[in-house]
Design goal:
Strand order of the largest sheet of chain A: 1-3-2
Number of strands of chain A: 5
Distance between the termini of chain A: 17 Å
Number of helices of chain A: 8
Helix content of chain B: 55-70%
Radius of gyration of chain B: 39 Å
Shape of chain B: flat
Strand order of the largest sheet of chain B: 3-5-4
Shape of chain A: globular
Largest sheet of chain B: 3 strands, antiparallel
Oligomer: heterodimer
Chain lengths: 191, 233
């Protein structure tokens, strides 16, 4: 009989060995535990790591083992990297739109900004801050963009709840009228 | 990015918002009417602009002019324009919100917090590591099995695509010859039956039309869209 403390340890090991973010689904499948259990254990783990130098950050269905954001300077020094905050105004605006309205197409972004976004989007893609998450089911099957886990890391965000609130505390609606609340979704368990 | 006087703006919405915020106004019809002259001043002083982008600026300008005239004259009202103005205001509000979020993003970045992940953790083995009990016979056996499992090579048929260039002139000569051989009368459908491609059908038809024009042949047809008989004159 597998024990819960075993699951916690298993998750830690997998998160450490993984390079990319791992989904709750993957953890469940690999460990053989149910998704609801994995979900709960992951949340417990996140809480445990809250003040440590190693953090578990979360974006939707995915979790990732990373260094504590407040130690960025020292870590950057060790890695011989520069701490740059050099996103242009256009890039920040575009990123803001994608963050709160994802997933959406280039045209939809341009509708809001009023200007061509091709170049900005390309830059953001190269930087790994956004990615193609899907294609829209309309003519031309345009690319739908969304933010990445690297985006979370770049801004030192541990959880999407740490994102700034939108003004007027209006619920952020997608262009088709459906709300975009990002949260962990537990799919139906398969027996 | 356009730069006029001291203002940097990217598009009409950007410009409008900056003008409104500069005057510390809300996004209302009155304030939009107020900044119309300033807006026009900016876009007229723009030199090199792509006409496609200029269109966007002018569309917004027409909205502003409507609002300005509405503010001055009491009876100005156009339902379509009203709807467009409502759209414009909504766009401005939305853009304003995201601009605010963008500046908050910038503040977050300035705090200098960043998370780093582990990179290159996987150990890659680049050598062949066979199991201990592998001997030469075993290896031969496995290799033979692997060869048998491989799919047979499919010889792709070489398709020879020959595009024969058919000219209307050649077709006319051909048809003339055929008509002579067939007692000067032929059904068009029969002529088409030997055509090998769509192109040939089209050229044949063109040849027939040319021959009619030149009065080499005459045609008769029983019913509309029906087959017709070609008779050599």
């Amino acid at each position: 009989m597998k024990s819960k403390s075993n699951l916690k340890s298993i998750i830690e090991s997998i998160l450490l060995s993984a390079e990319k973010p791992v989904s709750i689904k993957e953890l469940a499948s690999i460990s053989g535990f149910m998704m609801s259990e994995v979900q709960k254990t992951v949340l417990d783990l996140i809480e445990e790591y809250k003040d440590k130098g190693i953090r578990i950050i979360r974006k939707g269905e995915y979790v990732h083992l990373v260094s504590a954001p407040e130690n960025a300077e020292v870590v950057a020094k060790y890695l011989n990297e520069e701490l740059r905050a050099d996103l242009s105004e256009q890039a920040l605006e575009t990123l803001a739109i994608i963050t709160y309205k994802q997933p959406l197409t280039r045209i939809e972004i341009e509708e809001i900004r009023g200007v061509n976004c091709e170049q900005v989007l390309r830059n953001l893609l190269i930087r790994g801050l956004i990615t193609e998450v899907d294609r829209k089911d309309t003519i031309g099957r345009p690319i739908l963009y969304g933010t990445t886990m690297e985006f979370m890391q770049y801004f030192g965000l541990e959880d999407e709840s740490q994102l700034p609130q939108m003004d007027d505390s209006q619920e952020i609606l997608r262009l088709d009228g459906s709300p975009t609340k990002t949260e962990i979704i537990i799919e139906n368990e398969k027996s | 990015m356009y730069q006029v006087k001291t203002l940097n703006f990217e598009g009409p919405i950007d410009l409008l918002l900056q003008l409104i915020e500069k005057e510390e106004l809300d996004i209302t019809e009155i304030s939009l009417a107020k900044i119309t002259d300033e807006y026009l001043g900016y876009i007229f002083s723009l030199e090199k602009m792509q006409s496609s982008e200029l269109v966007d600026f002018l569309v917004v300008a027409s909205r502003l002019l409507y609002l300005k005239s509405k503010a001055i004259l009491p009876n100005v009202f156009d339902p379509e324009e009203e709807e467009e103005v409502a759209n414009l205001r909504q766009k401005l509000e939305e853009y304003k919100r995201y601009r605010k979020v963008a500046s908050e993003f910038e503040n977050i970045l300035k705090k200098g917090k960043r998370c780093y992940r582990r990179k290159g953790g996987k150990i890659e083995i680049h050598t062949f590591a066979p199991p201990k009990d592998l001997n030469i016979d075993e290896l031969i056996k496995i290799f033979k099995e692997a060869l048998m499992k491989m799919p047979a090579e499919n010889q792709l048929q070489e398709e020879k695509i020959v595009i024969k260039k058919i000219s209307v002139e050649d077709k006319i000569k051909e048809l003339d010859k055929k008509l002579s051989q067939n007692k000067k009368k032929m059904r068009f459908s029969k002529i088409l039956s030997v055509c090998k491609s769509k192109l040939e059908i089209i050229v044949t038809f063109l040849a027939v039309l040319e021959m009619i024009k030149q009065k080499f042949i005459s045609v008769s047809q029983d019913k509309v869209f029906g087959d017709f008989i070609i008779i050599k004159v």
